[in-house]
Amino acid sequence: MKHSAEIDYQYEQKKKLSELVGAHYGRLIGSTARFNQRMWNLYDHHDKGWTEVKGSYSNTGYYFRSFVFRFLELISVLRAVERASIHLDTRVAKPEDFNFINYVLAMSWIMTDIDLFKDVRDEDRRDFDHFYSDNLRSYSDIVCENGEMPTFEGFDRFIDDDSAILRVLDFFNGLRRDEARDRWDRLVCLHLIQIAFLNSFGAPRYRTSQNDIKRVISQFAKDETRVSLHSRIVSYDLDKDQGMKDLAKAFSQTRAPHKS
Known about the structure:
The protein has 260 residues and is mainly α. Helices cover 60% and strands 0% of the residues.
């Protein structure tokens, strides 16, 4: 009876995890792919000042608004998966479902872990170039309506100087590679984890070649960040995932990033 109960338990947990992944699979692929496209665009145009807010957030253009929208769209899906999986036992998950959940956790972790950077000053630990995890969840909850992101037009009401997501707006304001901050490298880290995820779970049109992965790695402003992320990949419990294996291989074949 004990053995039978254990089998039933594992079956139910696997079934619930598979249903969870199925319910959020399309949304996460879509939001990740859209943010992936924006990051490629940022590498080519970061020096044109399109993220620079001069005077007031209410006067920002499409590029800045859509950047924040795509970021929070992604965070909202990560938040939904985390919330749905909190009471499930991932130890008995099928390998692909286990990897899916771990990618969700890795993408959230990238935006919140202060120790990703070794040279962070004490004053920068105060939610400066990263987000406190509870705050990041709350920003997602603020903009979502019944758990769903509003349309881009509906999201417009959050882009002003008194916004409840002002911290997110500040994070993207003036973002560029040649600045003495860590936020650029943090987004490059997020982009690389997204690429590994899309290479494992996305359709062929969403996949990134090894050469292009190396191009993203070369975008790091600080070599220390490249080394730090490379060393931390093993902590994601994704060592058997092909997308993460390809990322690790690209890291090992990439030299230190060029200096601006």
